[in-house]
Amino acid sequence: MKSSVYPSKVDIWLAAILILAPLVAVGIGVYVIIIGEKEGWIGIFTGAFIAVVMGALSIPCRYTIKEKEIKIKCGIYEDRIPIEKIIKIFPTMNPLSAPALSLKRIQIETVHSSYLISPKDRESFIEELNKRLPTRQSCGKEIN
């Protein structure tokens, strides 16, 4: 089977935080320099540092369904979920920290772990994953 890539859904409020936080720090730094204080470079450096860290942790954010695994890639974070180990998948709005840029998520449970992801097209993702598990039940029901 062919691999399918699903980009993360991005909530507007989260995008605003990721963009505005470093911009505010840089803006304050520039303002402080304009009013004649030398310490403004601290704000500029802090804003730039925040932007680099947030970018490294969130860009790109996507999920790839391969023949035997789901690959999660969110910035420098990468994980793989073997499809054969999946016991449950279901839609959720769980707010726990995860490689997801939206609260409209899918929870994937395996024998040993639980994963939260937020593909932009949640329904298609679940549908395709179900096709890879033809003899199993999903969407909130245990998979045998």
Structure overview:
With about 140 residues, this protein is α+β, with helices and mostly antiparallel strands. The chain has a single domain (about 1-144), classed as PH-domain like (Roll), CATH 2.30.29. Helix content is about 35%, strand content about 25%. It has helices at about 10-35, 40-60, 120-130; strands at about 5, 60-65, 70-75, 75-80, 85-90, 105-110, 115. The chain has a four-stranded antiparallel beta sheet. Strands 5-6-7 form a three-stranded antiparallel beta sheet, with no helix packed on it. α1 (about 10-35) runs antiparallel to α2 (about 40-60). It is elongated and about 70 Å long.
What topology emerges from the helices and strands here?
Elements: E1 4-7, H1 12-34, H2 40-58, E2 61-65, E3 69-74, E4 77-82, E5 86-92, E6 105-110, E7 114-117, H3 122-132
Antiparallel strand pairs: 1-2, 2-3, 3-4, 5-6, 6-7
Oligomerization state of this entry?
Answer: single chain
The figure for the number of domains is 1
- By DSSP, the count of extended strands is 7
Please tell me the CATH architecture by its name. Answer: Roll
Discrete helix count: 3
**What is the CATH first-level class name?**
Mainly Beta
Let me know the largest β-sheet: 4 strands, antiparallel
Q: Which regions contain 5 or more consecutive residues with pLDDT less than 50?
A: none
What structural class do the secondary elements suggest? alpha+beta
CATH fold naming: PH-domain like
Helix and strand succession? Answer: EHHEEEEEEH
N-to-C terminal Cα separation, in Å? 22 Å
- Radius of gyration based on Cα positions: 19 Å
Q: Beta fraction of the residues? A: 25-35%
Mean pLDDT: 91
Give the strand line-up of the largest sheet. 1-2-3-4
